[in-house]
Amino acid sequence: MKKKVVFVGLSGGVDSAVSAALLKEQGYEVVGVFIKTWHPDFLACNEGEERLDAMRVSAYLDIPFLTFDFKDIYKKEVADYMISEYKVGRTPNPDVMCNKEVKFGAFLKKAISMGADYVATGHYAISNSGLVFFGSLSPRVRGALPLGPSACETPKKDKPTIFLLKGVDPSKDQSYFLWTLKQEQLNKILFPVGHLKKTEVRKLADKFGLPVAEKKDSQGICFLGDIDLKEFLKHYIKSKKGKVLNEKGEEIGYHNGAVFNTLGERHGFTVTKKGPTDGPYYIVGKDIKKNILFVKQGTHSSLNSSNSILALKDVNWIFKTPELNKKYTAQIRYHGEFLSCTIKAEGLEQKRRAEIIFDKPVLVASGQSCVIYDKDVCLGGGVVI
Q1: Residues 6+ apart with CB under 8 A from 358
Q2: Percent of the chain, pLDDT > 70?
Q3: 309-384 in CATH: which number?
């Protein structure tokens, strides 16, 4: 039988390197690919070093190495999108768009056009595409598949339904960023480390002797890294001083642009009228036209709004529309709490809309991703209107 060909997105980090090593060990024909993206001139860029590490991993594993240039796509679909959303007062998630347009958009399409059967990344998520090759999944994870353990088996005739599950390591789970994926994409994607904890991935990196085994984890925005987002945005959006008002409507401070801030933050503004016993203030509202921030004292966990219903646009359901009267959980920010809710989607599907009805009021900014789960299974999500 001809070996299945997998193009692995090698970022230069340990997760993608272990992914490539595992796939080669499982008998795939592996090709390492480094993705080049846009980077602004005013930010330090370590792309050269990351590419060199990716090349070292490929050389060590004795696999071919390619470089794909997606600068234009990243600039338009991720960076420009993020800037335009902030300009109108919304809070976008660039990592979601990066996965949609670059990693599982342009990269997937080019890899398949060059003869790949699959692409793979170091994401901490699980799907049953190719699970037959990763049989070490725990009974809990296999049992979480909606069709049970049999979902791991590939039918002889019909294509199986592909599910997306949370990664086993809750501190690293990245399914939140993958809600835009569709069946035809998931059918061509492998997540080799999703069934592992980060500590296990590190041990495997040592076992394989990978040259990046001791490398620290990358942080921050997809490809841009750990940047000061407000400073980044100020190169594209003009600062404008505005008022900070408390719950009574009293002016208690100032800020340098409401568009740079999002709900729930306790930074990015200055309080000039504060008593010695006052607690921290958090942003609970914005008026973009008047350039005003509304703040409230308390703890982050005590913040709420009067709104327990979220309207979503650009909705994507990965394998089925949620049932109307069934309880699900939703995540409204990465690594945020899983909040109990019900979903109203039937009848709104044609417009790619949905309504999420939470058990308790929530505070979330427009533009954020709201992702829906049925236990460990990610059903999909949408963008908060």
Answers
A1: 308, 309, 310, 330, 339, 340, 341
A2: 90
A3: 2.40.30.10
**pLDDT digit string, tens, across residues 60-95:** 999 999 999 999 999 999 999 999 999 999 999 999
Q: How many residues does the chain have?
A: 385
The three-point CA angle 45-16-223 to 5° equals 25
Superfamily of domain covering 5-208: HUPs (3.40.50.620)
| Residue environment code for 238-252, b if the CB has 16+ CB neighbours within 10 A, otherwise e | eeeebbbbbeeeeeb
Nearest to 339 by CA among 329, 326, 325, 354: 329
CA distance 281 to 254: 13
Helix boundaries (H) for the chain: 14-25, 47-61, 71-74, 80-87, 94-98, 107-113, 139-144, 183-186, 198-208, 229-233
Q: In this structure, are residues 242 and 293 in contact, taking their beta carbons and an 8 Å threshold?
A: yes
d(CA 163, CA 207): 30
Task: Please report, for the chain, the start and end positions of each structural domain, with discontinuous segments joined by +.
Answer: 5-208, 238-302, 309-384
Say how far apart CA 140 and CA 313 lie, in whole Å. 33
**Which residues are identified as catalytic?**
98, 222
What CATH number belongs to 238-302?
2.30.30.280
